[in-house]
Design goal:
By secondary structure, the protein is of the alpha+beta class. 50% of the residues lie in helices and 8% in strands. The chain has helices at residues 16-25, 29-42, 75-84, 90-101, 113-116, 124-134, 147-157, 165-171, 173-177, 181-188, 192-203, 249-258, 261-298, 300-305, 314-321, 325-332, 366-378, 388-397, 404-413, 419-426; strands spanning 46-49, 68-69, 218-219, 224-228, 234-238, 244-247, 336-339, 342-345, 353-355, 363-365. Strand 4 (224-228) and strand 5 (234-238) form a beta hairpin. InterPro entries: Lambda_DNA-bd_dom_sf, RNA_pol_sigma_54, RNA_pol_sigma_54_core-bd, RNA_pol_sigma_54_DNA-bd, RpoN_core-bd_sf.
Length: 427
């Protein structure tokens, strides 16, 4: 006799409206226009019109060119295609998709696993499994959280990796990047020739996983413009050139009077789809403005006087605006702002917190630390350049709590060689 048992489990069930909002939030420029055209094609009671773009009298202005993209797939599109053919559970599939959408332009995963999965009911374990899956995709090293992890992933996938390369990256990475060759030979029991083989192998690996994979050229257009008036007030305006989607009320009235039950059900469904589309468009626009306006408010000193960025993360924006962390992430990702004739990624206005006892709010941004590092290194004595430990000690004296490993990470981000290489280059 079959046993009957009851189980209680939680599942996230997204409504059609929520799916539509999530989908539209990530679309930009021509992609969103094409999406709206698809919706109009699917729904016969929708129509689309463009604003008048004819030049004004005496102006002679032409319509600005929209986003131009090459025919090749982006890194995200390539990874999503690879994900769709994987035989994994729905949870892992969703987690891996969220990881792919959170990769930065270099192919690194810098987001917090617990933040991007919370809106979908995914645990940290689910997200970690999704991240491990993405790290098996091409190009080797994609999805790594650090340069060390990127090198380790590539080493494990190479059959020609010399003996000891993986152990060096796992247990002796600090000595390796600081050039302590004698210590490495003693601790790992390697000969100078054996260590030399490992060094030559690691030199061939890519420090940025995306560099060899994404070679297409893409012309970007700003979605938002940040304006500053003569009195120093900052405002935000949209630069998106979207068509107007409207509902054919005349057809709705005509079919509603004379149509049978099936026809009336169809046109009522078409009306609901239109209302969902309008609501999703409005929510998308409002979310973009809310996020950018909060960034402008927090980073006003940077925009007006070129000062260092204040500590500000996506999590901070979500807490201040009431938006979800996932929504803020979608707004910031691959979206650009125009300010004083230059285009900036919105992500470039964000900065992580580091404790600083001398600051009024008790914190300093990573961008401010990197700016100070760049100035110190530019003015250093070529015979005694700043080492990473020297820089960490300097910041400690300035009441900035930052570890030496963090200094090394910042130096890698700025593409600055270590002190030994800088001394040789300047000599």
């Amino acid at each position: 006799m079959a046993k009957i048992a009851l189980t209680l489990e939680q599942k996230i069930k997204l409504s059609q409206m929520q799916r539509l909002t999530i989908q539209m939030m990530t679309l930009r420029g021509q992609d969103l226009v094409e999406f709206l055209h698809e919706k109009v094609t699917e729904n016969p009671l929708l129509d689309i019109r463009y604003p008048d773009v004819r030049p004004r009298s005496g102006g002679g202005m032409e319509k600005p060119i929209d986003n131009i993209r090459s025919g090749g797939d982006s890194l995200e599109e390539k990874l999503m295609k690879e994900l769709r053919v994987q035989a994994v559970s729905k949870k892992v599939m969703l987690a891996a998709g969220l990881v792919i959408q959170s990769l930065d332009e270099k192919g690194f995963f810098a987001a917090a696993l617990e933040d991007i999965g919370v809106d979908y009911g995914l645990s940290v374990a689910d997200m970690e499994e999704g991240l491990r899956l993405v790290q098996t995709f091409d190009p080797p090293g994609v999805g790594a959280r650090t340069i060390q992890e990127a090198l380790l992933i590539q080493t494990r996938r190479r059959k020609d990796a010399p003996a000891g390369a993986e152990e060096l990256l796992l247990n002796h990475y600090d000595d390796f990047i600081r050039g302590h060759w004698k210590r490495l030979e003693e601790q790992m029991g390697l000969s100078p020739e054996g260590l030399g083989r490992i060094r030559r192998f690691l030199k061939k690996l890519a420090l940025q996983p995306v560099a060899p994979a994404d070679e297409r050229t893409e012309f970007v257009r700003a979605d938002i413009e940040i304006l500053c008036d003569e009195e120093g007030h900052l405002t935000v305006r949209s630069l998106e050139d979207l068509p107007d989607v409207f509902f054919r009320d005349d057809l709705y009235t005509a079919y509603g009077k004379d149509g049978d039950k099936a026809t009336q059900d169809f046109i009522r469904k078409a009306k609901r789809q239109f209302l969902d589309l309008q609501t999703a468009l409005a929510y998308r626009r409002q979310s973009i403005f809310t996020v950018v306006e909060h960034i402008v408010k927090e980073q006003g000193e940077h925009f007006l006087h070129g000062g260092s960025l204040r500590p500000l993360t996506q999590k901070d924006i979500a807490a201040a605006t009431g938006l979800s962390a996932a929504t803020v992430s979608r707004v910031c990702r691959d979206r650009y702002a125009l300010f004083r004739g230059r285009i900036y990624p919105i992500q470039s206005f964000l900065a992580h917190h580091y404790r600083c006892d001398r600051e009024r709010d008790g914190s300093i941004s990573d961008k401010a630390i990197m700016e100070k590092m760049a100035r110190l290194i530019a003015e250093e004595d070529c015979r005694r350049p700043w080492s990473d430990q020297d820089l960490a000690d300097y910041f400690s004296q300035q009441s900035v709590h930052v570890a030496r490993r963090t200094i090394t990470k910042f130096r890698f981000k700025m593409n600055i060689p270590n002190s030994r290489m800088r001394r040789r280059m300047k000599e």
